[in-house]
Specification:
By secondary structure, the chain is of the alpha/beta class. The chain has ten helices and twelve strands. The chain is 37% helix and 19% strand. It is flat. The termini are far apart.
C-alpha cells in the first residue's frame, strides 16, 4: 500500500440529535423491555440499525405494522402530523425521538403557514425529514432542490414568500439556492436562524480541511444518509477522490493506487466504533501516522424524551 498518512477529521460522527435518538431506543428497551418498535430507521445508518435489532428493537415502515397498544419510537427525522393521529388511533405509546433541530423547522413551517406565507422548502424529495416538514403545511409548501429549480419557481401573485431548508444539506449549495431566491423575491423571509444544523456545517468544514490535503477521502456513512453523501460531495469539490462506505469491509484497495494521504471522516449518524475499525484497517497495513485535524470543538447535548428522563 502506498498510503503513508491518515488525516482524521474532527468533528465527525454522532451529532447530539443522533446520540439522543439512539440512546432513546436503548433506554426504552431497558425501561419497557423488548420488543420496542421503531418507525423507519431511527437514524440513517445500517450498522446502527442492525445493532439495535440485536438488542430487541423492531423496525417497521408504517404504524400499521405495530401491534395495538405497543410502544413505538419515532425516528430522528421527524414525521407529519398524521403519524401522531394514526398512533393515537391505534392506542400506541409514542416516544418521539425527533431531533430538536428538525422540530425547529417544523415549528417554523407552521408559523409561516399561519401567517399566510408561500413557503419554499429546500431539500431532497422523498427524504423522511422533508416528508415530515411538508406534512405540517402541505398546501403552503413548494419543494425545490437546486438553483435551477429556484430560478424556475412559479409563485405568481405571492406577496409573502419564505424559505426553509432540510437540516442536512450542503451549506455551499444551499446558499446558492438562497441567493437565487433572494434575487427573484427580494422581500423573501428566512428562518430566524438558519436551518442547516450545527453538526452538518461543522462536519462539512472539517472534511474541507482534510480533503485539501488528501488524495482520497473515506466517508463512513450509509447510502441513505443525506449528510454523509454531502460530505463525500464536498470532499470531491476540494479535489480528493471520495468514497462512501458503511464500514471497513467495503474498502477497495484499488482506490489508493498512487495515494499517499487518506482522509477519514464519518457522517452524523455513524458511530465512533466504525471509525475505529476503518483506522484499524490502515494500521493493519502498516500505516502508523494518523493525525487528527480539528476545526471546532462541539459541546451540544439534547435531553432525552420526557418518557425516559432519569
Amino acid at each position: 500500500m502506498s498510503v503513508e498518512k491518515v488525516l482524521l477529521a474532527t468533528p465527525r460522527g454522532y451529532c447530539a440529535g443522533v446520540d439522543r435518538a439512539v440512546e432513546t431506543v436503548e433506554r426504552a428497551l431497558v425501561k419497557f423491555g423488548a420488543p420496542i418498535y421503531v418507525r423507519k430507521q431511527i437514524v440513517h445508518n445500517l450498522p446502527v440499525v442492525r445493532d439495535l435489532e440485536g438488542k430487541g428493537a423492531i423496525f417497521v415502515d408504517e404504524l400499521e405494522e405495530v401491534p395495538q397498544g405497543a410502544t413505538v419510537i419515532l425516528s430522528a427525522h421527524g414525521v407529519a402530523p398524521e403519524v401522531y393521529r394514526d398512533a393515537e388511533a391505534r392506542s400506541l405509546r409514542v416516544i418521539d425521538a425527533t431531533c430538536p433541530l428538525v422540530t425547529k423547522v417544523h415549528n417554523e413551517a407552521k408559523k409561516f403557514a399561519r401567517e399566510g406565507y408561500d413557503i419554499v422548502l429546500i431539500g431532497h424529495e422523498g427524504h423522511e425529514e422533508v416528508v415530515g416538514t411538508m406534512g405540517e403545511a402541505p398546501s403552503s409548501i413548494t419543494l425545490i432542490g437546486s438553483p435551477e429549480e429556484a430560478a424556475a419557481l412559479a409563485l405568481e401573485g405571492s406577496e409573502r414568500v419564505a424559505y426553509l431548508s432540510q437540516t442536512t444539506l450542503s451549506v455551499d449549495e444551499t446558499n446558492e439556492v438562497i441567493d437565487v431566491l433572494r434575487g427573484r423575491f427580494p422581500v423573501i423571509e428566512g428562518p430566524p436562524r438558519e436551518d442547516i444544523c450545527y453538526a452538518t456545517q461543522n462536519r462539512q468544514q472539517a472534511v474541507k480541511a482534510i480533503a485539501a490535503k488528501s488524495d482520497v477521502v473515506l466517508v463512513i456513512g450509509s447510502d441513505n444518509s443525506s449528510n454523509s453523501n454531502r460530505l463525500a460531495e464536498v470532499a470531491r469539490t476540494f479535489g480528493a477522490r471520495a468514497y462512501l462506505i458503511d464500514d471497513e469491509t467495503e474498502i477497495e484497495p484499488a482506490w489508493f493506487d498512487g495515494a499517499r494521504t487518506v482522509g477519514v471522516t464519518s457522517g452524523a449518524s455513524a458511530p465512533e466504533w466504525l471509525v475505529d475499525r476503518v483506522i484499524g484497517y490502515f494500521r493493519a497495513r502498516g500505516v502508523d501516522d494518523v493525525e487528527t485535524v480539528t476545526v471546532v470543538e462541539e459541546d451540544v447535548h439534547f435531553a432525552l424524551p420526557k418518557e425516559l428522563e432519569r
